[in-house]
Design a protein that fits this description.
Helix content is 0%, strand content 54%. It contains no helices and 20 strands. A hairpin with a 4-residue loop joins strand 9 (118-126) and strand 10 (131-139). It starts with 13 loop residues before the first strand and ends with a strand.
């Protein structure tokens, strides 16, 4: 059965490209070279490995292999214009085939957050029946060692999509020095594959959703964990509920979340554990 393939998902393949720009006084041209990962585009890349003077760079701090993708909020020109580290996967006219009905998008990352900046990873999907966000990760916690993330995806028939990776801040202004490294991306847990009974990791979609008074939120752990946090955030990144904070055992767990004190709107339910991070949107209605 077909599975979704992300070319250069481990960021091992890079090319040195020549860039020509028009500068004042015209018609003067400035020529420089940059490293770019094959199959990816966008953003301001550096001219050498670990060149963190640009917003995106080839990093030797890899989870596996030789290289990873690095991104950092930095100054990119003499006027002091702050760059927003933004990378969009570019394949087949900004879109790439998603086949096999994957139920998770996974990878490994490090993140150094300043001023509550967050790392935002979004999987977009489009076919004749759906056009929008398939899943996302939003994390403002610093992770100094590589951390596994798993973004649950609702199974969809074949279509196309893209992946966005960015640094942001709920207040609108990001901070110089916020930095990420990401590596070893993959779509996994295909719906057509018979799944074994062993437990996996991730937060499950709440039920009911949308909800009016209360909803059940569940998650799965593949091993005993010393520290598990299940929390609900508003879209400003502020915690509005803490459902679990402490050790937990391997297996399935469920919590009842009440709307008490909350206004209708969209919230983010996030699971953080040594096994990784998983997030879901939940919708509170009148």
């Amino acid at each position: 059965n077909a599975q979704t393939v992300i070319p250069n998902a481990s960021f091992e393949q890079w090319s040195l490209d020549t860039i020509v720009t028009l500068v004042d006084p015209t018609p003067t041209f400035d020529t420089f070279t940059v490293f770019r990962p094959h199959g990816w585009g966008g953003g301001m890349f550096g001219s050498d490995t670990n060149d963190t003077t640009h917003s995106l760079y080839r990093s030797t701090d890899a989870h596996s292999g030789l290289y990873a993708l690095g991104g950092k909020e930095t100054l990119i020109d003499s006027l002091g214009v702050e760059a927003r580290s933004f990378l969009r996967y570019r394949f087949d006219s900004l879109e790439f085939p998603i086949v096999g009905r994957p139920r998770a998008f996974e990878g490994w990352f490090k993140f150094h957050s300043i001023g509550n900046d967050y790392l935002h990873i979004v999987v977009y999907f489009i076919n004749q029946n759906y056009n929008g966000i398939l899943g996302f990760l939003l994390d403002s916690s610093s992770h100094e060692s590589y951390t596994h993330f798993s973004i649950p995806l609702p199974p969809k028939d074949s279509g196309s999509g893209d992946i966005d990776i960015s640094i942001g801040n709920m207040q609108g202004v990001t901070h110089l020095g916020t930095e990420f490294v990401i590596d070893d991306l993959d779509f996994t847990d295909y719906a057509f594959v018979a799944q074994p009974n062993n437990v996996t990791f991730g937060i499950e979609q709440n039920y009911p959703n949308p909800f009016r008074e209360g909803t059940t939120i569940g998650y799965v752990l593949s091993a005993d964990c010393d520290n598990v946090r299940l929390e609900v955030l508003n879209l400003l990144g502020e915690r509005v509920a803490l459902l679990k904070d402490g050790p937990d055992l391997k297996g399935e767990h469920q919590f009842l979340f009440s709307r008490e004190g909350l206004t209708p709107g969209t919230y983010v339910c996030r699971l953080i554990s040594p096994q990784g991070i998983s997030s879901r949107f939940i919708q509170l209605i009148h």
